[in-house]
Design a protein that fits this description.
Length: 268
């Protein structure tokens, strides 16, 4: 059988980009290279970049280009530039707080509800507990018991009580050692603290002290059980117990607040 000697022609429309290609400008390229050195660890917190003249020579750029690169890095809080005879460009490590601040801003702009925040917590906290058992079984119990002691100390103060409850959950995530989960929790902890302070305050005004203390005692008892399960190294039971705890907590904190948005709670 004779082969077709003529190659097929690919239509030019196949290569037509939906949007124009973005070609980085010189300041962006310089900023990206410096950023790569920061992320890679060659440049560390407090290091001072070489003099402008040396960097201009090294990158083959003009002074205005280099200064524009500095402005890009300053906007991302990776560099701060001090003026004067003893001035220079100082390096800063990436700040995790920027992640939580920006994430929180996006969630507010999107109309995210407080209920969605608690749903997210129900999804990842039980998994974090399993990691705590695997990675911090020996160290976690003492840290969590100390946090539990603080809860007992501030039961009479709604705002302080909300803070220490949130801190217990935060410690669980931190002790898991999973950095993405830690940053995710950081983005939500302000919402949780403020919402729980509001709920506890309303709850205390509307119900008698004995009923309040019974509810608090139930929560603390559940936390104590979790600590014992972690200490025993029982991954499955610890994860299962905390999932049930989070489901019960969801009903406690969200009932009556199902449609409240993050924007509303942060504005209070």
């Amino acid at each position: 059988m004779e082969k077709n000697s003529a190659a097929s022609v690919i239509p030019s429309t196949l290569f037509k980009a939906k949007q124009p290609l973005h070609i980085p400008k010189a300041p962006q390229i310089v900023a990206a290279r410096i950023k790569k050195m920061i992320v890679g660890g060659q440049l560390k917190e407090g290091d001072m970049l070489p003099a402008e003249g040396k960097l201009m020579e090294e990158f083959g750029v003009s002074r205005p280009t280099l200064r524009e690169a500095y402005r890009i890095l300053e906007a991302e809080r990776l560099v701060s530039v001090a003026r004067g005879a003893k001035g220079g460009a100082y390096i800063h490590a990436p700040d995790p707080q920027l992640i939580s601040n920006y994430t929180l801003m996006v969630l507010q702009a999107e109309g995210t509800t407080v209920a969605e925040v608690y749903q997210a917590r129900m999804a990842f906290e039980p998994a974090a507990v399993r990691l705590v058992v695997q990675r911090a079984r020996k160290t976690a119990p003492a840290i969590l018991r100390e946090a539990l002691a603080h809860e007992r100390e501030v039961i009479g103060d709604p705002v302080a009580f909300a803070v220490v409850i949130a801190r217990f959950h935060r410690l669980l995530v931190e002790l898991s050692g999973n950095r993405p989960l830690i940053h995710l929790w950081d983005a939500m902890h302000q919402v949780v603290e403020q919402h729980q302070a509001q709920v506890v305050s309303v709850y205390r005004r509307g119900q008698d002290t004995d009923e309040i203390m019974r509810s608090v005692a139930t929560g603390i008892k559940s936390q104590e059980k979790l600590i014992k399960l972690i200490e025993a190294g029982d991954e499955d039971q610890a994860e299962s117990h905390w999932r049930k705890h989070m489901q019960a907590a969801y009903k406690t904190w969200i009932t009556g607040y199902e449609d409240m948005t993050i924007l509303t709670i942060m504005a209070d």
